[in-house]
Amino acid sequence: MVTKTPRKFFEALAAGAPAPFRDLPVRLERMIHFVPPHIEKLRARAGELAKDVDVVLGNLEDAVPVEAKEAARAGFIAMAQANDFGATGLWTRINSLNSPWVLDDITQIVGAVGDKLDVIMLPKVEGPWDIHYLDQLLAQLEARHNVGKPILIHAILETAEGVKNVEAIATASPRMHGMSLGPADLAASRAMKTTRVGGGHPEYKVLADAAGDAPRAGYQQDLWHYTVAKMVDACAAAGIKPFYGPFGDFSDAAACEAQFRNAFLMGCAGAWTLHPSQIAIAKRVFSPDPAEVAFALKILKAMPNGTGAVMIDGKMQDDATWKQAKVMVDLARQVAAQDPEFAAKAGLL
Ligand code: GLV
Ligand code: MG
Question: What's the gap in Å between 137 CA and the centre of ligand 2?
Fold first, then answer.
């Protein structure tokens, strides 16, 4: 495969555009909260919402009716102009690259609020060519509108072709922030036989062995395990962040929590929240467990230079578990910086 030289990779793609980031900005992004910006009442709450979530995202794509596409775009711009989001991320999900709205989404939003926008979420990404197109266009627009820092790209992994090309997507540009699993579109693209948005399915299971006439237990499996694992590896290898996407059954908080937790345990940084009730779930799940943090702190303390082997509470620790502990403590410190209650519980005051 022909690729750019390392030096070129970090050059701005347009004269006057900001240079790409070498490292991703360090930010807590436990939940990406979706706001429908064409609905004035919900848009008006964005300032309040920003105090409660890590990322506010104005959604322009699916779930916005065709006749409201322009209103959603204008509403997002108004929402961005009307609020100071502080440390909270401001993202938008634009329409897909083959839609009639996307060019105006990109040009009008970057022109009006490019300096406030942290990340553009790009749906239905199929390969690195989609990232290259947006990368180039963003550089041109950043240059034209004097945008001071690069706007990052977050891909949604929601087509079979995208999953096939996930590694090339993850490494397509230094503008890549990360990606999210989109279980609804992905299910459709793969002809999976489920109408659910994320989560398990009672029929996707393994049966226990037969034992005479006794009823056989069935153990439900995780339909998304393979894809989340593939996405986490592609993202971790590329130094970008993986996320679980939407969980559609708002009435089933326990299943939402279980799906989010599986993603967290496998390496995801956060998930989408589509309903206010999911914010607290994501906050709880994507902040490390204070008891685990306390144990991780013990490991770091017992191995100050990160090498050797020690026993703690009967469990073997070595250089590798020191690294595991550091992942946990680094995340805990990020959460603690924003949340004094968590800091106290995790022993990080
Ligand atoms: C999200 O966009 C999905 O299709 O699940
Ligand atoms: Mg989708």
Answer: 23
